[in-house]
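Anyone? Bumping this.
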Amino acid sequence: GAGVSQSPSNKVTEKGKDVELRCDPISGHTALYWYRQSLGQGLEFLIYFQGNSAPDKSGLPSDRFSAERTGGSVSTLTIQRTQQEDSAVYLCASSLRDRGTYGYTFGSGTRLTVV
Amino acid sequence: AQRVTQPEKLLSVFKGAPVELKCNYSYSGSPELFWYVQYSRQRLQLLLRHISRESIKGFTADLNKGETSFHLKKPFAQEEDSAMYYCALNNQGGKLIFGQGTELSVKP
């Protein structure tokens, strides 16, 4: 596609429910990243996929968070048993090559609200 | 530790005034630094990269390794520059480390 597409754009869920957030990167971009944007917290790295390599999961805040990338393209971020502190904007980005040297292209994000 | 620090949460200037958004980094290797911008209700987008030595929308940023800084500057601010600005460091491990962001408000 022309840009990085994320869905849904907004998600309201009850505490304790599971949610899935989807990211469709730019075609041909081998690297895909998930970040979390919270008020006053900046952008927090969550996970990074590069080609067929094992993902860098070092930023995932707890084992309730997981992500996968199927076929080197679409990625899904799953949050199990959501908590109110999970409320944030979840951003996906992709880049043409690894290491982000050429900069990332970001999606418009999914705003998650846990009530 | 690898870190990016933007000391100002909010910077408010008048139209036509010079603006400088501060960014300091902590990194032991050779850094790759970026500025990203997010205008109201728009997605985060790349503004400039230090390796390009480019000027975008009148903004420039010079890497100062001695001071470990990468401040963003513009000589004459415009109202349309009002946005959230993030400084970011490529840690060579495949991901960008972002600062907390600075909200720039340009008043008429």
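Late reply, but here is one note on the structure posted above: The longest strand of chain B covers residues 83-90.
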